[in-house]
Every structure is written in structure tokens, then in C-alpha cells.
Amino acid sequence: MSPNINETLITLIPKIPSPTSLNDLRPISLCNVIYKIISKVLVNRIKQVLPRLIDETQSAFVTGRMIANNAIVAFEVFHWLKNKRSGRKGAMALKIDMSKAYDRVEWSFIRPVLQRFRFPQNFIDLIMACVTYVFFSFDINGDISRHVGPTRGLRQWDPILPYLFIMCADVLSAIIRREIHTDNIHRVKVSRGAPQVSHLFYADDSIFFTMATMDECIQLKNILGKYCWYSGKSINFQRSEIFFSLRVEATSRNVIATKLEVREASNQTKYLGLPFIIGRKKKDVFQSVLDNNERRLLAGKREIFQ
Q1: Distance (Å, rounded) from C-alpha 210 to C-alpha 93?
Q2: Measuring CA to CA, which residue among 107, 104, 115, 109 is closest to residue 133?
Q3: What is the Cα–Cα distance from 56 to 159, expressed in whole angstroms?
Q4: How far apart are CA 208 and CA 91, in angstroms?
Q5: Which ranges carry the Reverse transcriptase domain (predicted)?
Q6: Residues in contact with 105: Cβ distance below 8 Å, sequence separation at least 6, in sequence order
Q7: Is the pTM of this model over 0.85?
Q8: Confidence of residue 42 (pLDDT cuts 50, 70, 90)
């Protein structure tokens, strides 16, 4: 692919009003129109087969699946965990946060993933050309820097980015399914007729459900470590949280949380923008959602009138 086609300008968008470090800035890739047409053509081909390739636990960017699919299942499990009093074993939910999820993906990991999905070789070569033949320049205070060649990562706002990302994330689903098949970890079941649930993904938002035992805790940590080693991703343990059912003793909670290097979640912890636990005071729980929507509507009105 010609360098002129895949030349990209990076601009940094602040995440907070007064950023003080690079972690407070979001890099956005501004690709040219010709590249976006090429990428969009490849995306349209991938979208046709994606529902048959990606595990049903992933609800992002797959035709026919919505964010509400995972949200409903997750909150039913959280409600069950909060009220679980029967059974000899307790259960837990681990919510992990991937650090710079898109920027850390190894290119050497993408090709075997595409080959595993049995895409034609020429199609894989086209995708890898879009990913690897990239030249970045940076917009810093209005000045454009010289070109830089990256060695890994997927570009923000690239049309093909989310589809490659969820195909890579499906590898983690495959590892979990294999461990379930060998009884190394166990899924949770909220009622007799309900389906068993082990994990739910929405792009880089991941949550895992297992029995709250040290053996399954170690196994889950090994799975995540193996996936991060292969893919190049890294878990942000400071923003990851764990939620236990009532049957888990305080000593076991501390040991498991320490082993996984995460903190125990509170009732205010959110998943997909909504709190884990919804009590009787629903107005207080959803007030932040209403405030965010109102703020966005006001911002949109200001842009229209300006």
C-alpha cells in the first residue's frame, strides 16, 4: 500500500477539562478519504460473516446484537449474586479494564487470528497492509511533526478497528470455553431454567463470572495472563473490580481480591454506564444517567444555534 494512502495525522483530544499527562489525552487518527474507502469495503465484507464467527458473549459491532443484550444478562447475574443465600459455594464477578486496549494489540497476533477464522490469504494480506503500512504525524499545538512508523496497535477511528478488535477478543472467549470444557472453571446459573454464564464482552468491557474459590481464581488469572501475553494487551488492575455473592466469607474475599490484584466493588460500581446493584431508590441511582443525557442535549443545542 502506498505510504501516501495510509498517511495518518494524530490529534490529541482531552479526556478531562485540565489534562496534566498523556494518560489524560485520547489519540484520534485522522485517515485520508481514499484509505477510509478501502477500509470500509473490507469492513462490509467482514460484517456479512461476523455473526457466524464471533461468540454470542460479544455484543459489540455484530449485526443483530445490541448493548442491551449483555446489560440485561449482567444485571440479572448481579442481582442473583447480591441475593444468593443457598448452595455450598459462593460466586464472583470480575470486571477488568484493559489499559490502552486498542493501542497495545500486537500485529503478530492479528494475522494468526484471521487465519484461524479461515479468511482467504489475499483478504488477510489486504487487512494487514491496512494495519501495518502506516505512517503517523502528530498535531501538537498546531504544528505537524515528522512521520513516525509504529510497530503495533490499531488506530482510533479507523473503520476496520472495532472488527479486528472483537475478532482478537474472541480468542479469549475460546480459551475460556476450553477451560470450561475441562472443568477448570465453572459458569454461574441464576435459576434452574436459565442459561449458564461465564463471561460477557462489549468491545473492551469484559466481565467474568465464576465460583469464588482460590483454584478458579488462579485459573482465571492464568487465562488472562496467557491472553495478554499473546495479544500484547495489559490489564489495568487499579480500575478492575470484583464483586462477591453473600456466601463468600470476608477472609476468602480478601485473599481472592489480593491474588487477582483488584479491589472489591461497591454498589456504586458501573457496568456499561449503569450501576451493578439497583436498590429501591431508583431515582438516586439513575440521576447521573439523566444528568449526562441533559448535559449532552444542552451541548447539542448550543452547537446547532452557533
Answers
A1: 7
A2: 107
A3: 22
A4: 11
A5: 1-276
A6: 152, 153, 154, 164, 165, 168, 231, 232, 233
A7: no
A8: very high
